[in-house]
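Renewal narrative, Specific Aim 1. Our central claim is that a sequence can be written position by position from structural information alone. The example that follows is taken directly from our test logs and has not been curated for this report. It begins with the structure tokens describing the chain, in the order in which they were read.
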């Protein structure tokens, strides 16, 4: 029988590979600066999947790259239950999940602790008044710079034409370098083992006949 949200909340609460934090700072110790030494216990690069939902990229990339650490981040705990459970069962010791607002990333990572960022099918926030909530807005790029190594690559996969165009414009305005760009992932590179990992939302968009876009770019430093 499928588990309901409440049961998933309870499970996630006791999963050893999930950190959960309340929206307000209740003073509980945070993992900032401890990811390598205390949590993963290695010096391997750290890759974030932001807006991870069930964590398909976190899980599949972690299988492909045991020499890297992966952290799926979302504000909704019951969604990450799927990925966290899989990682515990396999097991995938290079996987962690964290329930926080991405807006507060700098409270959970030291500068330079993050080496790569994936953003998978984030909400496009189409209304102009909500543009700063888009996870590729300059406001969020500023947050990523606070935790990332210089030269960190940010990958975006989206079904939204508007978010894709907005991101391409932001890349130019922010003087970032495009690493790779596919206007139509499955027409241009259908056999790419990484780009053909499909998330829950992606599968729904594909059923609706939507085109999937991908762009990756190098995050420049604060002073570039
Ligand atoms: C459309 S879903 C995509 C989920 C998953 N990546 C997928 O493709 O199936 C967007 C996700 O972003 C999360 N999200 C949106 N804004 C967020 C924020 N500021 N901080 C953390 N998570 C956020 C939502 O909770 C939701 O799970």
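The sequence written for that structure reads:
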């Amino acid at each position: 029988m499928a588990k309901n949200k409440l049961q998933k909340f309870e499970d996630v609460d006791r999963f050893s590979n999930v950190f959960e934090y309340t929206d307000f700072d209740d003073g509980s110790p945070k993992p900032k600066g401890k990811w390598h030494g205390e949590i993963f216990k290695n010096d391997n690069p750290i890759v974030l999947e932001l807006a991870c939902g069930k964590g398909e990229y976190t899980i599949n990339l972690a299988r492909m790259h045991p020499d890297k650490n992966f952290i799926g981040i979302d504000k909704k705990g019951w969604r990450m239950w799927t990925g966290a459970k899989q990682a515990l069962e396999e097991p995938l010791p290079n996987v962690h999940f964290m329930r926080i607002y991405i807006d507060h990333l700098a409270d959970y990572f030291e500068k330079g602790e993050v080496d790569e960022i994936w953003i998978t099918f984030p909400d496009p926030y189409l209304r102009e008044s909500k543009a700063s909530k888009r996870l590729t807005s300059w406001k969020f790029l500023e947050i990523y710079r606070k935790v990332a190594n210089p030269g960190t690559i940010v990958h975006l996969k989206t079904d939204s034409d508007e978010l894709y165009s907005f991101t391409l414009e932001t890349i130019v305005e922010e003087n970032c370098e495009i690493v790779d760009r596919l206007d139509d992932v499955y027409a241009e590179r259908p056999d790419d083992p990484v780009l053909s990992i499909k998330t829950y939302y992606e599968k729904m968009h594909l059923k609706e006949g939507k085109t999937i876009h991908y762009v990756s770019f190098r995050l420049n430093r604060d002073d570039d």
